[in-house]
Write a structure and sequence with these properties.
With 292 residues, this protein is α/β, with parallel strands linked by helices. The chain folds into two domains: 73 residues, 434 Repressor (Amino-terminal Domain) (Orthogonal Bundle), CATH 1.10.260; 198 residues, 2-Layer Sandwich (Endonuclease, Chain A). It contains twelve helices and six strands. It has a six-stranded mixed sheet, with helices on both faces. This is Transcriptional regulator with XRE-family HTH domain. InterPro entries: Cro/C1-type_HTH, DUF5753, Lambda_DNA-bd_dom_sf.
Length: 292
């Protein structure tokens, strides 16, 4: 079996960004750096795109070439050493897709998240029973153990909303996610009550897009925009669809998805109206629980 590739971390992305900016600040191309240092241009590209971590000797060579101050060199050397440490990985994550474990590692260190979900509740807002029903339905060929690993991971991820410096979550959800009966009426009622209660948390904002809004930019699929505290860390886009999970970080993608999210916010109900709407649909499930 092939070894699992090492995944990028927030720190590795930060290091890559800063090394790229130092090179650009020195007014050097990658080819010019290669000529002066004998560091392969392809290797430099991988370092600057967070696809690989620089060896200590390579890092020091680059920092010297860029005339980096001593205190900055020490900071970047420390950052390089810490860049191999994923922020949030557990032993049972071995069965999870690499893109997904990479995503949850970034999620753990994000300061803010803008999450659009059209067909089911955002992962951070799911109850355990709802998550089990969703995962079992989507991953219909998965074993019980694989499903439980996913459920366990999803429940643990929710800790980012209650930690000392909680993630600021802004979720926009299509009405379809509230109406689709996943796991049965009792599960749906509990899920919507959980959603309504979570909307009261100061660091969580939830807005619902009603069917009456018609077509909108979120209809092709769900996505997440992650924002980080350090200004050196660019936003990161996570897209989960039929073709698999994808992480995007180009300026073009960031601008497009941010624009899409702003449009979704504009067509959604206000947070207060959304809470009332969630409560209304939850009551419908409660009334229908006794029906066959």
């Amino acid at each position: 079996m092939a070894a699992k590739k090492s995944m990028p971390t927030v720190r590795l992305r930060r290091l890559a960004t800063q090394l790229r900016r130092l090179r650009e600040g020195a007014d050097l191309t990658r080819e010019e750096v290669a000529e002066r240092t004998n560091i392969n241009a392809a290797t430099l590209y991988r370092i600057e795109t967070a696809k690989s971590r620089p060896q200590t000797r390579t890092l020091l060579t680059l920092l010297d070439l860029y005339d980096t101050p001593a205190d900055e060199q020490e900071r970047l050397k420390t950052l390089s050493k810490e860049s191999v440490k994923p922020g949030w990985i557990r032993p049972w994550h071995e069965s999870l897709a690499e893109e997904y474990t990479t995503y949850i590692s970034f999620e753990d260190e994000a300061q803010g998240m803008r999450n659009y979900s059209g067909l089911f509740m955002p992962g951070l807002l799911q109850t355990e029973d709802y998550a089990r029903a969703v995962i079992g339905g989507v991953l219909h060929s998965a074993t019980t153990e694989q499903i439980e690993d996913r459920v366990r991971t999803r429940m643990e991820r929710r800790a980012v909303l209650t930690k000392e410096r909680p993630l600021h979550l802004w979720a926009v959800i299509d009405e379809a996610a509230l109406r689709r009966e996943i796991g049965g009426r009792e599960v749906m009622h509990a899920q919507l009550e959980h959603l309504r209660q979570t909307a009261m948390v100061a660091t969580v904002k939830i807005q619902i897009i009603p069917f009456s809004s018609g077509s909108h930019p979120g209809m092709p699929g769900q996505f997440v925009v992650m924002e980080f505290e350090d200004p050196m860390d660019a936003d990161l886009i996570y897209v989960d669809g039929q073709a698999g999970e994808t992480l995007l970080e180009s300026e073009t993608d960031i601008k497009r998805f941010r624009s899409d999210f702003d449009h979704l916010v504009a067509v959604a109900m206000s947070p207060n109206d959304s809470s009332a709407f969630i409560a209304e649909i939850a009551s419908e499930y409660r009334r229908n629980e006794a029906r066959p």
